[in-house]
Structures are given as C-alpha cells and as structure tokens.
Amino acid sequence: MSWDSVLSWFAVAGAVGTAAMGLVEALKVVTIPRVGSLATVGLGKVRRCLGKPAMHALERVYGRHAGDALLEGAWRKGPDQLEQVLRNGLRMAVFADLRDLDRFVAAFGQNPEEVSEAVKHLRAGDGGADRLAHDREIVARLEAAIDAHVEAAVAAGRDAYVSSMQIVASGVAVVGSAFAAGLMPGTQNVGPAILIGLLAVPIAPVAKDVATFLNSLRTAFDKRGARA
Fold first, then answer.
1. CA dist 167 → 78, 85, 201 (Å)
2. How far is residue 93's CA from residue 111's CA, in Å, rounded to a whole number?
3. Residues 132, 121: contact at Cβ < 8 Å?
4. Distances (CA, A) of 190 to 118, 166, 184
5. Less Cβ around it within 10 Å: N or C end of the chain?
6. Is the separation of the CB atoms in 39 and 76 below 8 Å?
C-alpha cells in the first residue's frame, strides 16, 4: 500500500467518523415516546449509582415529575450542571422531614441516629455552642459523603453516555459506509468500507494528526532516498 493510499484511507475514515458523530449529535433533539432521547443516555446510570433512597430524597425536595424534568434538563446542559442540582437537592433533603431519613443517611455511610439527632438540634437551635458545633460537624461529614457519591455517579453516567454515543456513531458509520460502497460498481468495495466504518469514530479525532505525522514520515524518507 502506497503512502498516498494510506493518507487517503485516514482522510476518508476521519470524514466518515466526523459525519457520523455530527448525525448522532443532530439526533439528540429527537425524543421517542417510552424510549427517550439520545441526549439523556447515561442519566439512568447516575440514578442507579445514587440508589433509591437518594432518588426518593430528591423527589421529596423537587417533586417527582418536576424532579425528573429537572434532572433531564440539567443532564442536557452538562455533567457539572447535574452535579450542582444533585448536590443541592440531596443536601436540602437532610432537613426535609424525610420519612426514610435513616435509609438515606445509611446509604451514604453515615450513622442515622447521629445525623437525626444533629438535624433536630440544628433545626431547634438549642444545645449550646459546643453542641451545635458538634452537630454541624456531623452534618458536614454527611454532606462530604453526598458530594463524593454525586461526583462518582455523574462520572459513571458520563462514561456510559460517551461510550453509548461512540457505539451509535460507529453503527451509523458502518451502515453509511456499506451503503455508499453498495452504490459503487463491484462488491469488492464493501469489505474495506465496513472496516472504515468500524474504525472511523475512534480515528476521527486524531485523523488529521495521524495524516500530518505520516506526511512528515514520507517527506523524511523521500529526503533520505534523495541523498542516497
């Protein structure tokens, strides 16, 4: 295979991958009833990582239907926005008269009895300065645990989102490449087209850099051959 063929292969793969990712990006605005949208892929992973007690606590703070819409809207804006919404909601839930506060606190690795007593004293504002300082420390430990769980859950959701988008884009690239090859005369084009489709998405972000590197190698070898 010649240098020009290799460079052309990377150029085509990069173009196919970029086009496939662009098409997937455009499809995010489409919402299918009972299925959802590509834009919210990964949000379910976040919910599962946080667990049912945390999600029930968020429903208590934001309301069930309002909470779902709020989380989806925050997820569409980005992981940082969702982190803020989750962190604020779960912190507020500590003081929201949860029926299952013990389960909620235990899910974050803290002592339910200590937290329950601390919350009561802080809400009442009694017990003296030392007692209130101790109670604030207990609640602060719970809030730190909440922040850590939220960051881990959102990171897991983000990983699920990115991998899912890459899989969908790869599928689009394979189908598009095979379809384009089928329109050309001769069936020998289908195999290479499918290979390009499979590798297009991983290659697309670095296709230009790889092509530039290969061009540099070719130039170096040409100069070396000329001197010889």
1. 20, 28, 9
2. 16
3. yes
4. 68, 22, 9
5. C
6. yes
**43-50 and 128-182 helices cross at what angle (nearest 10)?**
150
Q: 7-11, 38-42, 89-93, 130-134: which has the minimum mean pLDDT?
A: 7-11
Rounded Cα–Cα distance for residues 45 and 160 (Å): 7
The secondary structure of residue 205, as a DSSP letter, is G
- Residue corresponding to tokens 């020998």: 188
Q: How far apart are CA 210 and CA 204, in angstroms?
A: 10
* Residue 193 burial (CB count, 10 A): 22
pLDDT tens digit string along 126-144?
767 788 888 899 999 999 9
CA angle, 38 then 40 then 44, to 5°: 120
Answer for the pair 39, 29: CB distance below 8 angstroms, yes or no: yes
Give the tens place of pLDDT for each residue, 158-216: 999 888 888 888 887 777 777 776 666 655 566 776 777 776 677 766 556 656 656 66
Q: How far apart are CA 59 and CA 70, in angstroms?
A: 11
Where does residue 156 rank: exposed (0-12), middle (13-18), buried (19+ CB within 10 A)?
Answer: middle
Q: How large a percentage of the chain has pLDDT more than 70? A: 67
* Cβ neighbourhood burial of 17 (10 Å; 0-12, 13-18, 19+): buried
Do 20 and 169 touch, CB atoms closer than 8 A? yes
Going by pLDDT thresholds of 50, 70 and 90, the confidence category of residue 18 is confident
State which amino acid sits at residue 28.
K
Q: Which of 176, 161, 226 is nearest to 15 (CA)?
A: 176
